[in-house]
Amino acid sequence: MKGKKTDLDEHACAIARSLGAIGDWWSLLIIRDALGETRRFGEFQKSLGLAKNILSARLQKLVERGILATAPASDGSAYKEYVLTPKGEKLYIVIAALWQWGEEFCFAPGELSYDMVDKDTRKPFQPLELKARNGAVLGPRDMQPWPRPASKVKRKAASSR
């Protein structure tokens, strides 16, 4: 069926489930803006230039997935605001990694007009690194998925069959 998306909610891969929860690039841009203090529907719409129906659907999905929550407007008006939940705030590292990757590979020298900076120092932060538990920096060939030991719940379910 054309346009039908695969449901990744039951997929065994953490990346696949994460993509299922986040959805698409518009959702990541909404999260980027929410990290930057954008709160209201109109602010998201102005920033992203996204059709109202599409923005509304993306915001609703992010609320349903527990990434955003709605709250009364901070100025006491009748509007509602969208705020990141603790689960949504954890995506800051994904946004920073995408920024750094895009900065390195998607712009010609001098083309990028913004830097992602530390709010306190206004200086760019260090490139992100993946580290082993012993502190060693890991490269792209140093990681792999590895099966976890069966949890007690899975073992109990398997033994009761």
Could you characterize the architecture of this molecule?
- The chain is mainly alpha-helical and 161 residues long.
- The chain contains seven helices and four strands.
- The chain has helices spanning 14-22, 25-35, 41-48, 52-64, 86-89, 92-105, 152-159, and strands at 68-72, 80-84, 130-131, 137-138.
- The strands form two sheets. The protein has a two-stranded antiparallel sheet with strand order 1-2. Strands 3-4 form a two-stranded antiparallel ribbon.
- A hairpin with a 5-residue loop joins strand 3 and strand 4 (137-138).
- The radius of gyration is 20 Å and the shape is globular.
- The relative contact order is 0.09.
Number of strands: 4
Low-confidence blocks of residues: none
Level of helix content? 40-55%
What would you report as the Rg, rounded to the nearest angstrom? 20 Å
Structural class: mainly alpha
Task: Report the β-strand fraction as a percent range.
Answer: 5-15%
Order of helices and strands: HHHHEEHHEEH
Largest sheet: 2 strands, antiparallel
Gap between N and C termini: 36 Å
Mean pLDDT: 89
- Count of helical segments? 7
Strand order of the largest sheet: 1-2
User: What would the principal axes of the Cα set say about the shape?
Assistant: globular
Keywords:
42% helix, two-stranded antiparallel sheet, single chain, mainly alpha, 7 helices, 161 residues
Topology (elements, then pairings):
Blueprint: H1 14-22, H2 25-35, H3 41-48, H4 52-64, E1 68-72, E2 80-84, H5 86-89, H6 92-105, E3 130-131, E4 137-138, H7 152-159
Antiparallel strand pairs: 1-2, 3-4
